[in-house]
Every structure is written in structure tokens, then in C-alpha cells.
Amino acid sequence: MRPVLEVKKLSKSFHELDKNFISYLFKKKKKNLRKITILDDINFSIKKGEALGLIGKNGAGKSSLLKIISGTSIQTSGDVNVNGKVSSILELGLGFHPELTGRENVRNMAKLMLLDNHTIDSSLSFVEDFSNIGHYFDEPMRLYSSGMMVRVAFAFATSVRPNLLIVDEAIAVGDISFQRKCFERIESFKQKGTSILFVSHDLKLVKRICDKVIFLKEGNQTFFGDSKIGCEIYEKSLSTENDDSPQSLVYNNKGAER
């Protein structure tokens, strides 16, 4: 059986102009271009019904990787193969128009996804019920709090069960009861065969939901394997950094130091 998601030799980089832009403009010397590598040689796959956690410090490349997989950004090299429908919850409110109501935004987003009228009506009913924001569902989204925004975004992303669900830290904005509701929804999807790509700094939650993890450090894939082992490696690396140790830890995909 083919993986739901397969990433091979993926890298993302760009060239940043030197501060002396005038010199670059007229001399056009390559030495004025500085290469910035965001992701370097990322390789992993996710099977049907498998949950993969993406862990690492801010700036490690997690968001860049999610955007590439979601199709909102393009890699410099490598391949991303997705088999099936993808739903993503990335940047809060991405794709929503602030002057339109929650209902209007959900309907428009559903049409962009080419859903049929019956599915759209069913999605609207689900989002209204699951988000539980009352009359605000028919108010302009510019009036929404960040918590209300993420309620609608999560409800819409999970209104139709996808083959792959990508969830960023956005749901952490909601209150505790709604977070619990979201995780129950995620776990029910997983049991039904949906694959999950989950990003969180809450390692207890990662260990609870995810079968495996990828540990990214400065754009490099430091570990890919069992979630408990990966989280322990990440925590150990944080402790090492906090101790101001000059040594750095590098692990292979089985978690052994090398």
C-alpha cells in the first residue's frame, strides 16, 4: 500500500541580497548573494492511519515544511507525493475574508474545494454546531476573537474526513474544553484511517497522539522514528543547550548517538 504522504530529499533555500544593494545592482557579483537554507534533505513517509509529530524549536523549519506539503509554498529541490485529500489548519484565519460572515467564508472555501451542494450544506451544519460560537457565525469575521477564528477553521478543516490532516499549533489558541474536543476529533479520524501530521511544543500531547516524530533542528532532520524516543532526544538536546555545553548531539533514525 502506498504511503499517504511521502517526502524525498526535500530542501528549501533562497538567496539573500547583501546589504550593499547598489553594489549588487551594478556589479552583479555572485559573492553579494548569501544562500539561506531553511530545510535540508528531509525524508519521511506517513502510512494510512498513522500520526506523525513534527517537533523542534521555533525557526527549525517546521512551518516551512508544512506549507510545502500543503501546497502554499514550493521546495527548492526534492519531491512531495500526497495520495488523497488533504485538510490543513496552519496560519490562523488563512483564506477567510474579514468582511464576510463565518457562514459565508465556509461556503466560499467549500466551493473552492469543489465540494458538491449536499456536502457544502452538511459542512455548514457541522461547522456551526462544532464551533459553537452562536450568532457570531452570521457576523463578519473581523468581529471574531482569535479563539473564535480557530474554532471555525478547525471545524471546517474537519467537516469532511480527509486522507491527511495537517494540524499546526493554531488549536492551542482555543480554551481547554475546545482543545479536548479537537483532539477527540483528531483521534476519531485516526481510528477511521486518516493520517495525521501534527505540530506541537506540547510533548505530552505529541506522545499521546503520534506514532512517530520528526525532530527538526536548524532545518536538518535530526531524528525520524518512535515518538517517545524522539521526544526524549529533543528534551535532551534542549537540556544540553541550556547547560551551555559546547557539545552537540546528533542521532540516527534509530535514536542512537553517533
Describe the protein in words.
With 258 residues, the protein is α/β, with parallel strands linked by helices. Helix content is 36%, strand content 25%. The two termini are 33 Å apart. The model is unreliable at 245-252 and 254-258 (pLDDT under 50).
Question: What would you say about this model in short?
Answer:
The chain has 258 residues and is α/β, with parallel strands linked by helices.
DSSP strand tally:
9
Which stretches of 5+ consecutive residues score pLDDT under 50? Answer: 245-252, 254-258
Mean pLDDT equals: 86
- Write down the overall geometry: globular
Main sheet record = 6 strands, mixed
Report the total helices: 8
Helix content: 25-40%
Cross-sheet strand order for the largest sheet: 5-6-7-3-8-9
Features of the shown structure:
258 residues; six-stranded mixed β-sheet; alpha/beta; 36% helix; single chain; disordered C terminus; globular; 8 helices
